[in-house]
Backbone:
């Protein structure tokens, strides 16, 4: 007998981290603190860049967009987690799950594409410094960000629409604290071959493609830095890339760690805990990475906070 699609009446259960009631207040305050630090830190980055005319350059334009993406990225998952802990409920509606999934796919992909665009910006700045402002003009910068958004809108829309065609025939328990695409798809009753195919294709094109672009950019940057004769010149050139390299390493490293840990120990606790690294920790640390070693950013933040 063919299974009927019952998704209109369906609720999903997000199993989260722990069922122990004693741990719920600790989890709530921990994630609330990280959420507030992430939002306030990235908001400070954006306001500092807007308020300081010396930061109105392509590098900081992309950084402002990355900070905005970080705020939206963490806001797709943590508020729902906090609300569920407060209401002592694990439920999320079918429509809510699809919506959360759409925005999560969009912003995690946008994060990767923006990091790739920032790598290209550093490549032009170091390898073609005399033509930097001509190549990285304001029109191109806006077009690159819009292109990143368009690519991810199409990707997230495609993935979400493919989930809508699946049938879920019973109460669905998702071993995660948010509606992660892979977890939802593999709990469907109907055939998921097309979903898996598109997921893998998107991972190769929108994961491997940008990563290849980043590696190519930095191979050229490394060659240019090695050609600089003075040690001071080499340090100055490398210092402009240090924050970006740290952000890429953190984002890609934690993302890779999630899949390795899930493969090695596919338990609820290990998958959810590993996912915290790239869904929460990375957006939280990005403001510190881009401000602690950046003299211009620290000066802009002091002026913003203390009106100096």
Residues:
């Amino acid at each position: 007998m063919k299974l009927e699609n019952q998704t209109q009446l369906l609720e999903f259960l997000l199993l989260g981290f722990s069922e122990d009631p004693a741990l719920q207040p600790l989890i709530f305050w921990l994630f609330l603190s990280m959420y507030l630090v992430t939002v306030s830190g990235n908001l400070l980055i954006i306001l500092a860049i807007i308020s300081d005319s010396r930061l109105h350059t392509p590098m900081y334009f992309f950084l402002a967009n990355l900070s905005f993406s970080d705020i939206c990225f963490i806001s797709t998952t943590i508020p729902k987690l906090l609300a569920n802990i407060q209401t002592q409920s694990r439920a999320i509606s079918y429509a809510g799950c699809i919506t959360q999934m759409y925005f999560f796919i969009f912003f995690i992909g946008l994060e990767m594409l923006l990091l790739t665009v920032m790598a290209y910006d550093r490549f032009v700045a170091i390898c073609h410094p005399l033509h930097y402002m001509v190549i990285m003009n304001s029109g191109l910068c806006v077009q690159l960000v819009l292109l990143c958004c368009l690519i991810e809108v199409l990707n997230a829309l495609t993935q979400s629409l493919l989930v809508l065609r699946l049938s879920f025939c019973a109460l669905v328990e998702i071993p995660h604290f948010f509606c992660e695409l892979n977890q939802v798809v593999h709990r469907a009753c109907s055939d998921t071959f097309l979903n898996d195919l598109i997921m893998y294709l998107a991972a190769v094109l929108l994961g491997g493609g940008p990563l290849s672009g980043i590696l190519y950019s930095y191979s050229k940057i490394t060659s240019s830095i090695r050609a600089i004769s003075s040690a001071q010149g080499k340090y100055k050139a490398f210092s402009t890339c240090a924050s970006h390299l740290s952000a890429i390493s953190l984002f890609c490293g934690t993302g890779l760690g999630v899949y390795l840990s899930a493969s090695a120990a596919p338990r609820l606790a290990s998958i959810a805990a590993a996912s915290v690294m790239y869904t929460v920790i990375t957006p939280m640390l990005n403001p510190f990475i881009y401000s602690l070693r950046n003299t211009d950013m620290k000066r802009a933040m002091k002026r913003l906070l203390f009106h100096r």
